[in-house]
Amino acid sequence: MSTLLDSGFIDLFGSDIGLAVFLPCAFSVCGFFRCGDVSLAVSNLDMHALFVLGDLRAKLVKLFQSRFVYITEQNAEGIYVAEIDTESALVVDDKPGLKLKVGDHFSASVLPSREGGKMDIRFREIKLTVYGLGDYAFVETADGHAILFKEGHSVVTVFAAHQQLQEGLTKTLKAVTAKAAKWRKGELVTFKASE
Fold first, then answer.
1. How far is residue 100 CA from its own chain's centroid?
2. Average pLDDT, the chain
3. E strands present in 10-166
4. d(C-alpha 90, C-alpha 70), whole Å
5. So where are the chain's domains?
6. 86: buried, middle or exposed (CB in 10 Å: 19+, 13-18, 0-12)?
7. By mean pLDDT, which of 3-17, 83-97, 122-136 is the weakest?
8. Cβ neighbours, 10 Å, residue 117
9. Do the beta carbons of residue 156 and residue 72 sit within 8 Å?
10. Distance (Å, whole) CA 42 – CA 21
């Protein structure tokens, strides 16, 4: 301690109390910064979640390489359908930040959570959180390919069509969703998740 006093280190922080508070906070050997009740849980994005959810985000990016992408939300109340033309909606792939943003309305972000990691997906009023295996399914059809996300009794589909769907839009998109999700009397009874 006398070498710290001689070097002027204590004078820099004002007193022994300042040093006693500063050292444990600044030089914590934990995987995250912690000082009292303030903590940044950057370590809570574990490697498994980073791999699984990062890969899922990369597959979403590939879907948005198609010109026409359709977003649906299907639940007991019915189906909501929207079309995104990627020629007019800017697609921003933030690889280091593990984020995808399409136009002003669609975004997907991999974030830390208590469970190790999560992906938040937003499209207009649609908001859902994916925690990993069991929450999504990959579907291939003659018209394109899709990723389906399940949260509760609702399924959100992101479908990349080979060409713009002109006729039978709702019927085609319901058929895509039906490849992995089954409803009975308005309730979701089966969801075949991808492993």
1. 9
2. 80
3. 34-35, 38-39, 68-75, 78-85, 91-94, 99-102, 106-111, 118-123, 126-130, 136-141, 144-151, 154-161
4. 15
5. 2-40, 47-191
6. middle
7. 3-17
8. 24
9. yes
10. 22
User: Which H or E element spans position 182?
Assistant: strand 181-184
Cα 178 from chain centroid? 23
CA distances from 153 to 65, 90, 116, 175, 182 (A): 29, 31, 24, 17, 10
Please state the φ and ψ torsions of residue 35, each to the nearest 5 degrees.
-145, 105
Residue 161: band (very low, low, confident or very high) from pLDDT cuts 50, 70, 90:
very high
Six token digits for residue 89? 């909606």
Spatial distance between the Cα atoms of 140 and 134, rounded to a whole number of angstroms:
18
Nearest to 121 by CA among 71, 74, 169, 171: 71
